[in-house]
Fold:
Amino acid sequence: MRRADRLFQIVQLIRGRRLTTADYLAQRLEVSMRTVYRDIAALGQQGVPIEGEAGVGYRMRVGFDLPPLMFSKQEAQALVATVRMSESRLDAALARQAENALSKILAVLPLDARAAAESLALYAPLPALDPATSAHLTAMREATEARRKLKVGYLDLGGVRSERVVRPLACLFWGPVWTLAAWCELRNDFRSFRVDRVETLQVLEETFRDEAGKTLVDMNRQREAQEHGGA
Structure:
């Protein structure tokens, strides 16, 4: 790797983490710790606002930014592949944004990288989500971000209907289906709901805050404990 490319990678790695150690940088870049220290010093001399010190870690001062990134042919192809594979499984609103983002990236690429990306012979011709499931997924995703409760009319696999008020925690994709991880106020416990089995959905005005024992982290811990206990 050229030194200029290595310096650029160091900036990117430090920007992406709260605190980055020299040992982490050395392993990622496959260079010695001495080289990392020398590169950090060179970046500082060039005006890059890296804070920290050897033996502790480094971070980027808030507000620092770089010019738009350029991608290699392989990186551009990876982006195209990712969007193609995910589009049919995303809700319609997010799929459009993914396509828009990819178009912006392709528009500024060198011609050879753009041609390589657009000619990538990799597709994912899966059936798109049905309109109702797509709309519900959009509402669930936005409610999760806004921390707003949901009123859900649900039909379980046994054919039993129920109506719940839940705190949406995350939308999870399991290959063929999406599920909503939530805290169910009816059951006073965590529940997962298949999005394609939601019959009615209402986003409520009532918001919620994280409470001990009712967060996604708590749900994952509970699941892990159950799995280990059943082993």
Remarks:
- Strands lie at 50-53, 57-60, 148-155, 161-173, 178-184, 189-194, 198-207.
- Helices lie at 3-15, 22-29, 33-45, 73-87, 92-107, 111-118, 131-146, 216-229.
- The radius of gyration is 23 Å.
